[in-house]
Automatic annotation (TrEMBL), chains A, B:
It comes from Streptomyces globisporus. This is MarR family transcriptional regulator. GO terms for molecular function: DNA binding; DNA-binding transcription factor activity. Keywords: DNA-binding, Transcription, Transcription regulation. The keyword DNA-binding applies.
Amino acid sequence: MTDDIVASVVRQWQTVNPGLDTGPMEIIGRINRCAALLQQAEDAPLRSAGLTRAEFDLLGAVRRTDRELTPGELARETFSSGAAVTKRLRALQDRALVERRGDDRDRRVAHVRLTDEGRALVDRLLPEQLAYERSVLAGLDQPGRDELASRLSELLVQLEGRLGGARR
Amino acid sequence: MTDDIVASVVRQWQTVNPGLDTGPMEIIGRINRCAALLQQAEDAPLRSAGLTRAEFDLLGAVRRTDRELTPGELARETFSSGAAVTKRLRALQDRALVERRGDDRDRRVAHVRLTDEGRALVDRLLPEQLAYERSVLAGLDQPGRDELASRLSELLVQLEGRLGGARR
DNA sequence: AGCAGGTATTACACCGGTAAACGATTTGAC
DNA sequence: GTCAAATCGTTTACCGGTGTAATACCTGCT
């Protein structure tokens, strides 16, 4: 069992400040570090298609709900600000991947849907992306992956309850 | 067992595209989501001290290594670009939390150390931060936390080997 | 001296968030 | 019924933070 960066950081803290309860770092530090490493590399298949992770998330949200979404819904779905969604929509629209359509009843709201190219792009990219992710996770055996997924789900439920409630 | 956001996203994908192997999402999606939620809220104690997470990481790196570090070392230690470190150092120096000292031998390199206030600030903030993080993790029992930490460590080792090697 | 390699900083551009602005709709008082 | 005010969804304006790439500077070797 070799140790990771977080383990050595924790060891440094213990040396310098022996009383410290560094327990939380072992989880939160690792989650942050994993997320950082993943985001740096994970997007390789996306980048080759000229897409940001955030843009892909947006396209994916429209694709998987299989209906038109409003910018507001997209903002909630992708956990980003309305302004960010607006900008991404403009960029994606300029590339003819999404279309805007004004609501007939309420002219404040817009409806966003994928163009055929947008849909085709997502359907081509997502399997590539998942295959890449699968290769990244290949170092863990199946029981380990299940265990990890289930623990993360537990944690995520906690976080959503505690923090997601305070959101918005 | 209630399910989290990732579970419902996976379900949506399965509805729309039944053949898809969504396994990787169960881990990577959750890690990203946890990291996002944590970073939004986790920094509460820091923000009250007027510090960014990145700035705190930088101060922490100097504190825990217990010696002067060069900007380059700090960039590697905090996994950010040299330019970002330069700017953060300027900001922290303006607030008298760190000091720069030029090397006598090699006048390219600088050495960064904490001022007394900087050191005091870290030593005051870190326990607060850890206490806050502990409260966030309180929903998991101790065996669950250990299990999670250990699985994350496994994954992190894999990622560092696979991706960290490609870094620089 | 000149050149190759290394360190830190600066210049520039992108991306995201907050807050203000804008247009549209609903509510409520008269 | 109508007007004014509050509310809502979206967009725009602005700002801060980060990365890449160009720059300045230094060292050590030939």
